[in-house]
Automatic annotation (TrEMBL):
Name of this chain's protein: Pyridoxal phosphate homeostasis protein
Organism: Streptomyces albus (strain ATCC 21838 / DSM 41398 / FERM P-419 / JCM 4703 / NBRC 107858)
Annotated InterPro entries: Ala_racemase_N (IPR001608), PLP-binding_barrel (IPR029066), PyrdxlP_homeostasis (IPR011078)
Record key words, sorted: Pyridoxal phosphate
Residue spans crossing the bilayer: none
Modified residues (N6-(pyridoxal phosphate)lysine): 40
Ranges of residues in domain Alanine racemase N-terminal: 11-236
Cofactor names: pyridoxal 5'-phosphate
GO function terms (MF aspect): pyridoxal phosphate binding
NCBIfam families assigned: YggS family pyridoxal phosphate-dependent enzyme (TIGR00044)
Stated family: Belongs to the pyridoxal phosphate-binding protein YggS/PROSC family.
Length: 239
């Protein structure tokens, strides 16, 4: 085992233990929570090691980086999640490798993703990114739609060819009423999810929680946590 492999294995085990403990504390079964490892800024070799260690879901936030990395790892049994802010002109590229786009936050993006999914004959799962720091009908600083925009986007995605409405995603806000209150933020996301599932019962993914706040996400009911730093190490630069 290489040093890097040993390091990633130890980090993964520690994250796994955190998730397991958070599930026990919340009275949830471990299988209710899926770990997505966020591999942004780290090389394809690390993705390959992670795959060998049993990781099945990985996430990236920039198309320029994700495209080549996904190609280099095309032989691995991985699901790729796109979690970054996405311009419509990148939709074609992203649809080429992403199984799940977690950052759908505006109608134009739904149109672009649908067109490219149809063209590529791919089915793409979409999560609506909710901005808990945005006004009802605005978009957030770091992407995401305000609460008032969820329903419209949900209907658009649900009726878009090539796309499947899979659920909701959020990033704990740094500003606004939920700043520093991760669990309250994630509980709010769960309320939106419950409401949305009344109309779209299959859209049951709730993606919340990162390295610093995965416990709060599990406690609130998240089905997916997105963990980068705690598995791969501190990123050399913001990404
Ligand atoms: C980078 C990133 C993560 C992972 O963050 P860590 O703090 O490194 O665990 C999760 N979600 C999104 C959207 C990200 O961009």
């Amino acid at each position: 085992m290489s040093d890097r492999e040993a390091e990633l294995a130890a980090n993964l085990a520690a994250v796994e233990e955190r998730i397991a403990r958070a599930c026990r504390a919340a009275g949830r079964r471990r299988e209710e929570v899926t770990l997505i490892v966020v591999t942004k800024t780290y090389p394809a070799e690390d993705v390959r090691i992670l795959s060998g260690l049993g990781v099945r879901e990985v996430a990236e936030n920039r198309d320029q980086e994700a495209g080549p990395k996904a190609s280099a790892c095309a032989d691995l049994p991985l699901s790729w999640h796109f979690v970054g802010q996405l311009q419509t002109n990148k939709a074609r590229s992203v649809v080429g490798y992403a199984d799940v786009v977690q950052s759908v936050d505006r109608p134009k993006l739904v149109t672009a993703l649908s067109r490219e999914a149809v063209r590529a004959e791919r089915a793409v799962d979409c999560l609506i990114q909710v901005a808990l720091d945005a006004d009802e009908d605005k978009r957030g600083e770091r992407g995401g739609v305000g609460a008032g925009g969820i329903e419209e986007l949900a209907s658009l995605i649900a009726s878009a060819e090539g796309l499947r409405l899979a659920g909701l995603m959020t990033v704990a806000p740094l500003t606004g009423p939920y700043a520093g209150r991760q669990q309250a933020a994630f509980e709010r996301l769960m309320e939106f999810s419950t409401h949305m599932r009344a109309a779209h019962p299959a859209a049951n993914m709730v993606s919340a929680g990162m390295s610093a706040d995965l416990e709060q996400a599990v406690a609130a009911g998240a089905t997916h946590v997105r963990v980068g730093t705690a598995v791969l190490g501190v990123r050399p630069r913001l990404g």
